[in-house]
């Protein structure tokens, strides 16, 4: 699911997740204290009021504490994963730079990633505008600079396999349905 998040949002979301993780961890910690103490004290100095929790309440607090801990752990992991992803995306830039076209296989070998990972990362970077002027030619399995369009631009109307709408495609480049925005597979 994290793979679908556009790279330009990574930083904001990572920070948000860290805040969420810290906040839920703090709440979980307080809930654990209430659970173990079995009572809560409110007020200041001589004006203090102590409420003792019953067993049902203590169990409810325990469940809350566990749930909050889980949320904190999941958000922390997601934040770590996202920041690792951002780091991975940065490393593509020097590899791609200055290439009119480069084989996915070659990028994969240079970066020591699986080709499907490379395709997914590159498509994310293109969709989010992180790298501009490139598209993936899925048929040739290459990342191609947009200036390098086929000379004889051939267009035709095809039925979208996803929504069934009739949409015009340009042969030789990646096409998306104008109705549902889904990828139209190359069929040449
Ligand atoms: Zn469609």
Walk me through what this model shows.
This protein is of the alpha+beta class. It has three domains: 1-87; 98-148, Orthogonal Bundle (Arc Repressor Mutant, subunit A); 150-188, no CATH class. It is built from four helices and nine strands, in the order H-E-E-H-E-H-H-E-E-E-E-E-E. It has helices spanning 10-37, 55-96, 104-111, 115-127, and strands spanning 39-44, 47-52, 101-103, 134-137, 142-145, 155-159, 166-170, 175-176, 183-184. It is elongated. The two termini are 31 Å apart. The model has no long low-confidence stretch (mean pLDDT 86). The structure holds zinc ion. Zinc ion binds next to loops.
Report how far apart the termini are. 31 Å
Treating each run of at least 4 consecutive H or I residues as one helix, how many helices? 4
Largest sheet: 3 strands, antiparallel
Query: What ligands can be seen in this structure?
Result: zinc ion
Strand content: 15-25%
- Tell me the number of strands: 9
Looking at the structure, what is the overall shape? elongated
> What is the CA-based Rg, rounded?
26 Å
């Amino acid at each position: 699911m994290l793979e679908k998040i556009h790279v330009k949002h990574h930083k904001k979301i990572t920070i948000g997740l860290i805040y969420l993780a810290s906040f839920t961890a703090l709440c979980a910690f307080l809930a654990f204290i209430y659970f173990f103490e079995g009572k809560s004290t409110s007020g200041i100095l001589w004006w203090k009021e102590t409420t003792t929790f019953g067993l049902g309440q203590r169990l409810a607090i325990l469940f809350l504490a566990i749930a909050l801990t889980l949320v904190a752990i999941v958000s922390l992991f997601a934040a770590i994963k996202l920041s690792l992803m951002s780091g991975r995306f940065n490393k593509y830039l020097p590899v791609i730079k200055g290439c009119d076209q480069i084989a996915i296989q070659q990028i994969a070998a240079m970066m020591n990633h699986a080709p499907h990972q490379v395709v997914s990362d590159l498509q994310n970077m293109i969709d989010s505008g992180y790298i501009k002027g490139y598209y993936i030619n899925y048929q040739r399995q290459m990342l191609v600079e947009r200036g390098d369009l086929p000379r004889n631009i051939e267009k035709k109307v095809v039925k979208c396999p996803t929504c069934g709408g009739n949409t015009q495609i340009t042969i030789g480049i990646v096409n998306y349905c104008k109705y549902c925005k889904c990828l139209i597979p190359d069929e040449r």
